[in-house]
Write a structure and sequence with these properties.
Rossmann fold, 15% strand, Adenine-specific Methyltransferase, domain 2, binds S-adenosylmethionine, 10 helices, 2 domains
Amino acid sequence: MTIDKKSLINWVGGKRLLRKTIEPLIPTDIKSYIEPFGGGGWILFYKQRWADLEIYNDLDGRLVNLFRIVKYHPNAFKEEYKYLLGSREMFLQYLNAKPFTDIQRAVQFYFLITRSFGGRGETFGTVKKSCGGASKSQRNVLDKIDAIHQRLDKVMIENRDFEKLINQYDFEGAFFYCDPPYSKGCGYAVTSTADFDHERLRDTLKNIKGRFLLSYDDSPKIRELYKGFEMVEVERLNGINNREGTNRENKIFKELLIANYPIKEIFNNGR
Ligand SMILES: C[S@@+](CC[C@H](N)C(=O)[O-])C[C@H]1O[C@@H](n2cnc3c(N)ncnc32)[C@H](O)[C@@H]1O
């Protein structure tokens, strides 16, 4: 079963809406493809293979455990998952459950993320119109597990801080797609928005031997940090987790794509 270019989960800050824009900007002559901020892996899973060596990394051990279990124990995962219901009662039970095994932990995390509002794993997700939230098909999930299991076959999965990871895997043929927490907006379990050190990331990327492509929110701070690098502006509809205050209207959200190799020309020609 081949992957349908989709991830297993909707993750806060996930690049589902930007994957078609980002794909042509990723060079094809790379020897390794590395995502230091893997999250839901929307760019990784957009293609059947980016390079001979591929690495998924995230500091959040729950994500890493989920992808490791799907990679190494897909049948055990499916066996645990297949009797779960899209029910509010079960969601609340799982929210407070203390799983014993890594397989149970992966199933609990996956269940809470996919059945919750905005993929945050906190409140039970309901929908009025489309087929999201609790109405999601259980059978599709089981098929998806098989597809992601196959896609991860040769992908290395790491659970490190970005700086150690980038320094460890850097060389002339390396390519890093970096999608760090935004400078403004929601934080993550592993780093709040206030705590993430954007200067440390810039200093790490500044002198690498390989190439990087970075996606960020468009803010004066980020423009200043990456002055001198190639930069293009992109627009997308705002995701649910980035809306500020009570304004729930869809609005345009501006992002920057930044690279240490030429991207402007490819981007402008592709538009
Ligand atoms: C914007 S999300 C990545 C979304 C991903 N590109 C996708 O398409 O789903 C940022 C990720 O960075 C991770 N993260 C935060 N601080 C980190 C750190 N110091 N090192 C590695 N990962 C980190 C978070 O856990 C989160 O999953």
